[in-house]
Fold:
Amino acid sequence: MPATATSSHRRAVRWAAVWLVMVTLGSLGHWLFWINTPANDGPLTAEWLRRAANLVFFPSAPFALLASIGLDIWGARPLLTAILLHAMTWTTLLTTLAIVLRARARLVKPPANAQPTPPSRGISRRRLLVDASLGTATIASAGPIVHGVIDTSFDLRVERYTVRLPRLPKAFAGLRIVQLSDTHLGPRIPAAFIRRAVTTALDLSPDLILLTGDYVHNGERQIAPAAELFEPLVRSGRPVVGVLGNHDWYANGPLMSRALGDLGVAMVDNARTFLDPDTRTLRPDPIGLCLAGLGDLKTDRIDPARALDGVPDDLVRLVLAHNPDTAELPHVVAGPRIDLMISGHYHGGQIKLPLLGHPVLRSPHGAKYIQGLVQGPACQVLISRGVGMSILPIRLGVRPEVVEVTLLPDA
Ligand SMILES: [Fe+2]
Structure:
């Protein structure tokens, strides 16, 4: 066999081996973390491992989204789907890489009429230019992605807000609330990270803890362990109030609600409870501060009358609603008064790009309800960037957060 045929054969075997390793790693990872959802304790839940797994999965994300698998719609044969997904991903990526390397080889090859370069002169200027350009392009595109997947996505921050409410009684001036939202226990987010968020919340020593939905990412099996993660909040003796998000309903809304309720979280979807001004405990009769909730916009009904009718007018009403677009609904705007709506859902857009803004998670109201404290048509709305992720295993320029709100009377 001629020498060139042998070397091209070897090269093909090497490419095939790389393809096989990456398809196997990707499919195995998808099976372990996405489809089979392992136990939420043990070595597979370590944060560093999930960061690494998210990085291995990332190249398949655009293909997964095209096939709806990014939305966790896996079909009847999930393992076969995962193998096909990674086969397609790595065929495309390695073919692209081979084309780039071939183009590079052509570019660095000296012109036919050029003088041969003596070995002592080292790398040619042409080769240096081509490699520097390729290296810069690779770092510029891959660098932010790697940083986003392994660092930004798990770089938990505490975001502090002060909200002034005209009717706030003296007893609640300075009341500190901590909000945890969109923890998304599941393939992208391990239990260890949510425990870190819970510990951060408790370290802030809040008077009241609010949970605004999406406790699980994609399955009924995650419901019990997801609820269990909030047990330290209840055990601390602080009042904990929550509503469900759309992902909880995709899994099993009533089951998620029951799991949190059994733990001691007051679930207030289209209902309310009250915070006693003296004992700072929850009670059913109207006194102190009204803590109401509305159903999720996409998956539940939204009944402000059921949540708020009969609440004395002089009580401040805080309303938990997973999706902040709820604030724009005509029957919410025209319904009983709300003083502050507290929401999550959009994960701060999850990805923020220069000039493009938030291309992944969009609200019908543009960037208005993506994050922060904003004025809605009838009330202020506080929107958390959340703890976890959905759709893509990455946050870019949008860090996860625990929110701390201090309530003050109007100046
Ligand atoms: Fe979410």
